[in-house]
Design a protein that fits this description.
It is a single chain. Strands 1, 2, 3, 4 and 5 form a 5-stranded antiparallel beta sheet that branches. 29% of the residues lie in helices and 22% in strands. With 178 residues, the protein is an alpha+beta fold. The longest helix has 14 residues. It has 5 helices and 7 strands.
């Protein structure tokens, strides 16, 4: 991971950050949920993407459907020359390699990769890709890792940092970290 050269060429602002959320709560071809997230991080460091930073792994309660195993979550910051749609195709290919089968919304999964932000871009292609990811502001398991690895990040719509959004979420009693 060569963050030094990238950081010198591109100061860390929201306009030059690509953030990816990772989560898993089922055993699969890549092993335990923890193993799947760690393997996915390795997969993000090659084939057109460079892993620049990764948060610590979090054990979190399920979001949405509650009657399922707890999750392992993280956020990664990557660099790529791929446009957002091509990057999403790459993320879906990694999910398939990890045994992901799409089914129940917010249901259990071997691996989930979400494109959270792409250089602060705003994009709405219903059913295909929305940027920034519409769930960022409601998910402690996304905001906490972003605050850890990208403290300069500002939400492209809310115009607030991850730390500020976390404080707002905490004041509502939200979250899900265990």
């Amino acid at each position: 991971m060569r963050t030094d050269v990238y950081a010198l060429a591109f100061p860390l602002t929201s306009k030059n950050m690509i953030l990816i959320g990772l989560g898993s709560n089922l055993e699969g071809p890549w092993g335990s949920p923890r193993d799947a997230v760690l393997r996915a991080l390795r997969e993000l460091d090659g084939n057109g993407t460079q892993l620049l930073a990764a948060s610590r792994l979090l054990a979190t309660s399920p979001y949405g459907k509650k009657n399922q195993p707890d999750y392992v979550n993280a956020v990664a910051r990557v660099a790529t020359h791929m446009p957002p749609e091509a990057l999403m195709r790459r993320l879906h290919a990694i999910e398939r390699q990890a045994g992901r089968r799409r089914g129940i919304r917010w249901g259990p999964r071997t691996l989930d990769l979400d494109l959270l932000d792409y250089h602060g871009r705003r994009l709405a292609k219903p059913g295909r890709l929305t940027l920034p990811h519409p769930g960022i502001c409601e998910r402690q398991f996304v905001l906490q890792p972003i605050a850890e690895i990208a403290p300069a990040w500002i939400h492209p719509v809310e115009h607030e940092s991850a730390r500020s959004l976390l404080r707002r979420l905490d004041s509502r009693g939200g979250g899900g970290e265990i």
